[in-house]
Predict the structure.
Amino acid sequence: MKTAYIYDPIFLTHETGIGHPETSHRLVSAHSHLTSQDFYKKLNLFNPRDAEIKWIQTIHQPGYIERVKSSCETGMNMIDTPDVQVCPESYNVSLKAAGSLLELADQVMHGEVSNGFAMVRPPGHHAENSTAMGFCLFNSIAIAARYLQQKYDLKRILILDWDVHHGNGTQHAFEEDPNVFYISLHQYPHYPGTGALYETGTGKGEGTTLNCPMNAGLGDDAYREAFKDKILPATRNFNPDAILISAGFDAHRADPLASIRLDTESYGWMTEEMMSMADKYCEGRLISVLEGGYDFNALAESITEHVRVLSQS
Ligand SMILES: [Zn+2]
């Protein structure tokens, strides 16, 4: 089966200003590295599309969506917090980022590909219902989970978030939903402050949130242990109909924004483990989206490792 890859120069037009770590150069260098690999020609390339507002509204308040649109259009340079820098293009680029995941979801559900990676920006997993946070405007992976449930009647969606920062927005979107299992590995304590071990979901969603907080300085061994002891058993119990990955690469030892010490190869075995779960429980359906990752070389190499393994399906 094939692997999809979505990238487009439009994602470079979201400008965050001089000195901001979430810059378009992240994608330029990663795309360049990926296209130089032999396996690149095996990938199915797709174009992004705009997410329809009705799908954005499954996660975000209409008033917030309007506020993002008007803030960008009127030339504001930030939304809600100084780390969310925007330019006039940012709203349209954010619709394309979310739409890329919907396109990927369609390709996977139509059987065109078994899995895929959307290399988009801005990232999404910190975006809350009505607040921009942590470089994020719209929570693309959360929107894709709702899309799969509502358009394709998939019952159980598993989201694995291995970005080094806890995906507060995604957790909050689904903490009461027993049909979306949110699992996160992240440095803790660290930005954004959420993601403690005791955060396990609320109400009917109790038990379908799993946080694996990691102390600064931990690395590959600790991640292997978390997969073996917690993440893989929880995935087997949940029996997902699709697996989504919030693939940030800022837990790499070279990353300037955090202190977890994963190697490039770590992203290969984590990808393999989730592919084997997808093969076993959901016909290989696995959809991955770029979140963070701020060392250009480490990001390019780690993305390449992730997509290389995906393409061996
Ligand atoms: Zn991050």
Q: What stands out?
A: The longest strand covers residues 180-187.
